[in-house]
Amino acid sequence: MKLLLSALTFASLLPAAELPRVEKTSNGSYRLMVDGRPFLILSAQISNSSGWKEQLDRAWPLYKQLNANTAEVPVYWEVMEPQPGQFDFSSVDLIVEGARKNNLRLVLLWFGTWKNGVMDYAPQWVKQNPNRFPRMRNRAGDQIRVLSPISAENRSADARAFSALMKHLKAVDGDRHTVIMVQVENEAGSLESDRDYSAEANQLFRGQVPGQLVRALRKQPGTWMEVFGPEEADEAFAAYYVATYVNEVAAAGKKEYPLPLYTNVWLRERKNFERPGEAYPSGGATSNMLDLWKAVTPSLDAIAPDNYVLDYAGHREVLRTYNRPDNPLFVPETAPGPLAARYMFYAIGEAHSLSFAPFGMDYAIPADSPLAGQSLLGGLAANYHLLAPAVEELARLQQANAIQVAVEEDRITDLRLTFAKFESVVTFGTPKPSYGGLFGSGTKNRTGRVLMAELAPDEFLFVGFDALVRFLPRRSSDLRNAQFVSAEEGTFVDGTWQRGRLLNGDETFFGISLPAEGKWVKVKLMAH
Ligand code: DGJ
Question: Which of 497, 391, 404, 360 lies closest to 41, judged by CA?
Fold first, then answer.
């Protein structure tokens, strides 16, 4: 009896009872804890109108094929609150039940006041009553398809609905944590106008910038025009009202059930011209408004970029921009297709992202598309296959700043990763002699990618695809040659390294080849 009691007491202390949370660690970086253990979200997002039974039934097997550990699924204000104050959570329950059956965690996306910079997911009773739920007005004074962020009525209607959702999640999932995170709104901000030009908004715009904001941004007090200048005054005004609105919705939800919350951003980097309200929604947490947003959104755990930037330099720049000491990086959306497999390595390995998720995994690919016949998920399923069982170890290695990546790009076929005592030369495609040595000829579809972690100065763990990995003593060392003490293949099973065969002879003589289907390798080195 005594034994049983102490077992029960112990069980009640088990980390499974802990709520998911984003925590800042002693070295100043972030980790996502799920059931008391570090976690990385390896996911994909389903299409906007796929939070319905038939579409979900089609999506669950795709998540399995993808080897994802989490699904990102939208929930809709218009469906949840068909009449004011009358809530119907059956669509939410369907999603939670489906995820559990398929052994997936969930990130739910709250499509409320904003979806892609417009108000399309507001319930009909909101859309059809602009007197009670005011819309923004453009410069000409005409109403547009966006709810006004300065309206307290709009804000509290959304906050009421969102907190009802969070309360429901606590009731049905508070002890299971199938839902580990919730996105508040979707790409908030306004298309069609850079700010609200209603009479009330114009009056606020002529007034002083709130003192709290001025102080947080270390600026001199003044009007919006004086503080932010003609280039950014309208956008900063919009950003302040959108951000404080989103924060209030988040705070109301957190009060009911304090899950990690984030909001996602339609970036300004996506298009070649950067006009707010035209090329991207004005008032969102774009890179130029990120300081402002961070100053007024304490109830959000993160501001997360929808990273559709396709050139790899620009893509990595976005990851760097949103990975800040005051902002953990999550990538809730990125482009599907062949790039995702490579870009995941930049996100998780280089920029310490706590999530990765291409958008639209359940789209049907039209027969006349150049991608016809291919999975939208490309090599990502292979990445997730190898990495999902290792997320706890990867999160630990992120924390230790131990990871570097080598990713093949157009005409980038050889990369050098420099660690404390050794460096690794990674070659993509068949090595061919040329002046100065052997150089990779590149792979057919640029599928080469390696994520390498330094476990100790002479010990490395790496995973990758279509690459040849060699080691040398670091350039600054007196020694010129490196030798394998041991090289072992292996896999992670439920977070634990399982050693496979030892590699030697032809399998190590010219370096270690990582095949198209990928593999994990652990090596111990010495130099002479
Ligand atoms: C970004 C949005 O956040 C998604 O919901 C979806 O509309 C995609 N754009 C489409 O590319």
Answer: 391
